[in-house]
Specification:
Tumour Suppressor Smad4; alpha+beta; kinase; lipid biosynthesis; 2 domains; 10 helices; 304 residues; transferase; nine-stranded antiparallel sheet; single chain; six-stranded mixed sheet; Diacylglycerol kinase family lipid kinase; Rossmann fold
Length: 304
């Protein structure tokens, strides 16, 4: 039995039409399935929690974008008994990109239905106040989170997505937020032992996969199954240098530029002098001063 969790509004409203194509193939191949449509924010989390509460093995297929994946993994219980498939129909699809999954809807469906291979991956955990929020791709505080917040309220994303130019929406919001960004001090503690101080921090982010923002390769060497997070800090450079860094992140050539600091760790604690935007897999979290990032002790099995 395959349990499909589908966002009918994904890809600027094309999610439902894409599901109809998928349903025809499932029927033609006599596949046993159930469909669960999401109707509001965090609904996928509720559905995933219900499907995995019994403690029985279950296969869940996410039909959506990175936001849908984020909501689903936040609801999963009994991780060791879950097998997850992914059919990317969002605008960013950094989860699928980072795992080298097919971007074509029907090819991704074929993989989910007929592949006998799976891969166990880590899941990250964002901690803030007394709350936790899992992430599959990345989570951060500062400038990159401000871009995510901006994309959630901007009509620019919808406009460019309809044209199939989602990356331009990210680029436009990046420039907009950079003009308004005010870098400030951060204290960072890695693995409870390595303490770092940065005076002008644009952002600090933990990566489980290499990409975010629709193909920005911020941490090119990040691997989802090495029990480590790649932690990037952009700091101690003027805005003009930060602006010069931006075009290079699509190729991953920014890693040796001034102001780019990348570390590998199991845990990172961040204290910001001022409250800043926070995101988890692109989903906005309220302004925070203190956050930390770690890994779930259990892994999640992905169809590859």
């Amino acid at each position: 039995m395959y349990h499909f969790i589908a966002n009918p509004n994904a890809r600027s409203g094309q999610g439902l039409a894409l599901w109809e194509k998928i349903k025809l193939k499932l029927i033609a191949e006599h596949i046993d399935y159930q469909i669960h449509f999401t109707h509001h924010r965090h609904h996928a989390t509720e559905i995933a929690a219900e499907l995995t509460a019994s403690g029985d093995p279950v296969t869940i297929v996410v039909l959506g974008g990175d936001g849908s994946v984020d909501e689903v993994i936040c609801g999963l219980q009994n991780l060791s008994l879950v097998t997850l498939g992914y059919i990317p129909i969002g605008s960013g699809n950094d989860f699928g990109r980072g795992l080298a999954l097919p971007s074509d809807t029907m090819k991704a469906l074929d993989l989910v239905l007929h592949s006998e291979q799976t891969r166990k991956i880590n899941l990250g955990v964002l901690h803030y106040h007394d709350k936790v929020h899992r992430f599959a791709v990345s989570s951060g505080i500062g400038y990159d989170a401000a871009i995510c917040h901006q994309l959630c309220i901007s009509r620019v994303k919808v406009f460019f997505n309809r044209l199939g130019l989602g990356k331009l929406a990210y680029a436009a919001c990046s420039l907009y937020r950079l003009r308004r960004c005010q870098p400030d001090e951060m204290e960072i503690l890695l693995d409870d032992t390595k303490r770092l101080h940065f005076k002008r921090v644009f952002f600090a982010s933990a990566f489980n996969l290499p990409y975010e923002g629709g193909g920005c390769k911020f941490c090119p060497d990040a691997k989802p199954d090495d029990d480590l997070l790649d932690f990037i800090v952009i700091a101690n450079v003027p805005k003009i240098i930060a602006l010069a860094i931006l075009p290079t992140v699509f190729s991953g050539k920014h890693t040796r530029l001034p102001g780019v600091h990348i570390f590998r760790c199991k845990k990172a604690e961040v204290h910001s002098k001022i409250a800043l935007p926070v995101h988890s897999d692109g989903e906005p979290i309220y302004l925070q001063k203190d956050v930390s990032f770690s890994l779930e002790p259990e892994t999640l099995k992905i169809i590859t």
